[in-house]
Amino acid sequence: MKSIRAELRTIASWIKPGSRVLDLGCGNGELLSYLQENYQVTGYGIEIEQSNIVASIQNNINVIQADIEQGLTGFEDNSFDYVIMTQTIQALRNTDEILKEMLRVGREGIVTFPNFGHWRSRLNIMLGHMPVTKALPNTWYNTPNIHLCTLNDFEALCAEKDFRILQRSIVDRQHRSRTFNAFLPNLLGEIALYRIQKSLQ
Questions:
Q1: CB-based contact 190:118 (threshold 8 Å)
Q2: For helices 6-13 and 30-39, what crossing angle results, to 10°?
Q3: Strands across the sheet with 42-47, in order?
Q4: SS3 annotation, the chain
Q5: How do residues 1-56 score in pLDDT, each as one tens digit?
Q6: Is domain 6-198 classified as CATH 3.40.50.2000?
Q7: Contact 61, 26 (CB under 8 A)
Q8: Which residues does 132 contact at the CB level (< 8 Å), separation at least 6?
Q9: pTM for the predicted model, two decimal places
Q10: Which of 84, 96, 170, 177 has its CA 20 to 30 A from that of 8?
Q11: Which of 71-75, 78-82, 173-177 has the lowest mean pLDDT?
Q12: Contact 77, 105 (CB under 8 A)
């Protein structure tokens, strides 16, 4: 069994074997390759960077070159069991619309993002600077992030858009789950992982 980083192992543990999966911003296809090999999933990756597309193909991933900011109009409703987006929502211009699209084409969505509410980020701001941390390593002038959020922000968005939170994992920058994160997750958690779906009417 090939090894993958801890964040992706957590995501994999939420996936039922034999599922259909769409991975938005799939990078080099590491996650889908792991899921195909160990969970017998089928599906596609969507990626815009040419080098990542080549790497995904080398990992035997069915990959589509596309910009997810343009939406997922090529896919019908409920085409997938899971739509996954890791470490990407903070770099999107239309975050809420992409989340809606994820839950249109997939029965469930899985998203991960750095928590801007972590105490190191707060300390940086108190000292008069935009945060530069292990979880947010870019400086303000060269960061791809345009919509950073805290755990509270994301959960408020889910409530506003009528998304149900099915599962949540709050971890440190090395993707380790710490007991103290459960007490003050928005202050102590560095990386957030959520499994969501549309609320049942």
A1: yes
A2: 40
A3: 63-65, 42-47, 20-24, 80-86, 106-114, 191-198, 163-171
A4: CCCCCHHHHHHHHCCCCCCEEEEECCCCCHHHHHHHHHHCCEEEEEECCHHHHHHHHHCCCCEEECCHHHCCCCCCCCCEEEEEEECCHHHCCCHHHHHHHHHHHEEEEEEEEEECCCHHHHHHHHCCCCCCCCCCCCCCCCCCCCCCECHHHHHHHHHHHCEEEEEEEEECCCCCCCHHHHCCHHHHCCEEEEEEEECCC
A5: 466 777 788 899 999 999 999 999 988 889 999 999 999 999 999 988 899 899 98
A6: no
A7: yes
A8: 124, 138, 139
A9: 0.89
A10: 96
A11: 173-177
A12: yes
Decide: 21 and 38 in contact? Cβ < 8 Å. Answer: no
Residue type, 179: T
Instruction: Give residue for tokens 């994992």.
Output: 169
The residue to which tokens 């958690």 are assigned? 189
